[in-house]
Amino acid sequence: MFHKNLIAGLKEDYPDAQLPTQESIEHLFSPHQVEIEKHQIHFIQSFIHDFFHLSRTDSYQNFISKDKKPKASKNNAVLMAYDFHINEAGTPKLIEVNTNASGFPFVCQLYKQQGLKNYEEALASLKKSFLSDISHSKSEKPYIVITDEDLENQKMNSEFYIYQNLIRSYGFVVEVFDFTDLQYSDGRLRDPNGKAIDFIYNRYCDFFLDEERSHHLLKAYTEQSTLFSPNPWEYYLLADKERMVELTQTDFLKDNDSLSLRQGFLKSYDIKNFESLEQLLSQRKKLFFKPKNSHGGKSTYSGKSASKKIIERFWNDGGLAQELCPAPTVMLTTGNEELSWKYDIRAYAFKDEMQLLCARLYRGQVTNFNTKGGGFAPLVVKTI
């Protein structure tokens, strides 16, 4: 009944959108709620605010690596997300920053269905962020395209059509296309019908647009004939995992006024900086391994359970090793059983503003969205 009501609510709010089936979302959205301390919410708000403002400073931009430094963008990045675990001391610890975060409209619907507040404010903030980024377009009536790869096989593909419905309600012409269907000609990025594109809401995960098949997108971005949101510049400043290595392997934040920045980062290491495979193997149980440009939990491993073969692969191929901060757990009744669930905290943001919070419940090694009862869930302030 819960998922049926969720679909009905989405249909009411987005009548023209292509919506998911009930069966397709049973592992994506949870009927549960997760409690969080109020001071933890304030910490996350402070972290997002302070990290954004730090990233705009000359000292930060001169400090970080110039490798892969993209052309700066005129606009920012809608629908970013900061993912956290809570450590044993109760402090939120940043796991990673995402510039292509999914789930926002569904989470708002979860809050609405469960009679919780704030979803209306979140949707208003989302509209404000899109209007802000789109306003940088040179066109008086910007034509907008939502894009990703392999659209029809994306687990959250219905979200693209919800956004199409939503952005159309703001007064824009919006279409959804696979990035491979776009083309660059006569100085502009164009849709399959040859229409020039002014603004792209970009969910494609070639974050720097540096793959050969992304050349047409990179040309349009570099020439700024089309605005991308999110874009390589915001990824470079905030979401590239190299930033976590640089900020935790140096004294750059030592005297920073922000307590949340000094405490919120997990110690992170570039695999290539370990002296030997033997050293890496000896420390692996205290580490979590992931590729530098991973997304969606792909190819990520806890060192406690990773085989020697997997660690050797990271040693040979490179990647990131992060201080192990196990996901917090919560006991929840699922069906007739009380089960232990792991969760992380996702904070959606635009610039320095936190827009919406949720938890992502799962069982297993990583956030996997394959267990009934798990998935996105509302966060509520813990009461005594």
List keywords for this structure.
12 helices; 2 domains; 7-stranded mixed β-sheet; 4-stranded parallel β-sheet; 384 residues
Number of helices: 12
User: How would you sum up the major sheet?
Assistant: 7 strands, mixed
Instruction: Report Rg.
Output: 21 Å
**From N to C, what is the helix and strand string?**
HEHHEEHHEHEEEEHEHHHEHEEHEEEEE
Distance between the termini: 30 Å
- Helicity, as a percent range: 25-40%
Q: Could you tell me the mean pLDDT?
A: 93
Could you name the ranges where pLDDT drops below 50 across 5 or more consecutive residues?
Answer: none
The shape, in one word, is globular
The total strand number stands at: 17
Q: How large is the share of residues in beta strands? A: 15-25%
What is the number of independent domains? 2
User: Which secondary-structure class do the elements indicate?
Assistant: alpha+beta
What does it look like?
The chain has 384 residues and is an alpha+beta fold. It folds into two domains: 2-239, no CATH class; 242-323, no CATH class. It is built from twelve helices and 17 strands. It has helices at 2-13, 38-55, 58-63, 104-113, 119-134, 157-169, 215-223, 232-239, 242-248, 259-264, 277-283, 308-317; strands at residues 34-36, 80-86, 92-98, 143-148, 173-178, 183-185, 188-190, 199-202, 227-229, 268-270, 287-290, 301-302, 320-323, 329-334, 337-350, 353-362, 375-381. The strands form four sheets. Strands 1, 2, 3, 14, 15, 16 and 17 form a seven-stranded mixed sheet that branches. A hairpin with a 2-residue loop joins strand 14 (329-334) and strand 15 (337-350). Helix 1 crosses helix 4 and helix 4 packs antiparallel against helix 5. The model has no long low-confidence stretch (mean pLDDT 93).
